[in-house]
Structures are given as structure tokens and as C-alpha cells.
Amino acid sequence: MTQDLTQHATTPGSLQLGRASAQPRSPDEAQLDRVPNPHPDTDYCARFTAPEFTSLCPVTGQPDFAILVIDYVPDQWLVESKSLKLYLHSFRDHGAFHEDCTVGIGRRLTALLEPRYLRIGGYWYPRGGIPIDVFWQTGTPPASVWLPDQGVPPYRARG
After folding, report:
1. What is the pLDDT of residues 47-57, one digit of tens each?
2. Polar residues composition bias: which ranges (predicted)?
């Protein structure tokens, strides 16, 4: 995954929201949009859960499946959910290890949003008999924010 973390414009005409958008062929081609936070003076947690995240093993080309849970405390910006959905979907034909997918998504969102805090949990289904779970965060969450458990049970045949 390349590290081009360019922020996209936030003018209404440049957003994917409200218009037909082609499925990006790769995460590098995907446009992530941000919109102004209507409550920048308030600490709160926003959560996105992607229970059907898929990517490809870069060695075998076999599909890998995960539950992704993204929690963030916004500052000035929110991620626009349609663009996030298209971005996450762009991994379906992308070959990368679990760690690269999980950490790369966290870093790209952090570069775009400049949140007060962000954490991502990648709960990967086993391949070869071993589940690989990957966790990344930007630092310490604000003390005033309630961060619930991510809700994915420890591995016992997830689902």
C-alpha cells in the first residue's frame, strides 16, 4: 500500500455523497471524503464497524476476511460514510497482509481527519488455523470520552 495520504477537498461538489460513484479498483485509487464536524467543541466517539471486510493474501491470492471496528474522537472533521464504504470495499481485490491492511486504514483515516483519537481493531478470521488480530491507535483517548468494548469476542469460531 502506498503512503499517499492526500486529503480530498470538502466542497459539496467534490464529495461522492449524493451522486453515482464507481467502485475504486484499489485502496490507492479510492477517494476518502471528509465533512465538517457539527460539534467540534464536544468530545464524543464515532464508531464504524465493517463485519464483512475482505482483502487478498498477497502470497496465495486467497481471500482473507475480517471484522473491522474503527472508533474515533473527531476534531474538525468527520469521515463521510459513503466514501469510507467504497474505500473499504476497494480492498477486495487488493493483496496485503492483515497488519498492512489494518494499520494502513488507521493511518489513512488519521491523516485525513486529524482526529483527537483513533483506534482500529482488525479481527481476522483464521487461515491456516491461526487468527491474526491487529490493533492500532493514535495515542491516549480523551479522559471525557467513553470508549465501549469493540464487541468482537475473543476467537471462538467468530460469527
Report:
1. 999 999 999 99
2. 1-14
* C-alpha grid cell, residue 155: 476467537
- Output the domain CATH number for residue 109: 3.30.1130.10
The share of the chain scoring above pLDDT 70, in percent, equals 87
Dump pLDDT digits (tens) for 22-71: 888 899 999 999 999 999 999 999 999 999 999 999 999 999 999 999 99
Annotated catalytic residue within 28, 33, 41, 64: 64
The total number of structural domains in the chain stands at 1
Q: Which amino acid is at 95?
A: G
Residue 84 placed within a domain: yes
Side by side, the strands of the sheet bearing 63-73 are 46-56, 63-73, 117-124, 133-137
In a domain, 56, yes or no: yes
Please report, in range form, the residues annotated as the binding site: 79-81, 98-99
Instruction: Measure the CA–CA gap between 78 and 87, rounded to whole angstroms.
Output: 15
Grid cell 467534490 is found at 14
Q: Establish whether 71 is a catalytic residue.
A: no
- The answer to whether 18 and 81 have CB atoms below 8 angstroms apart is no
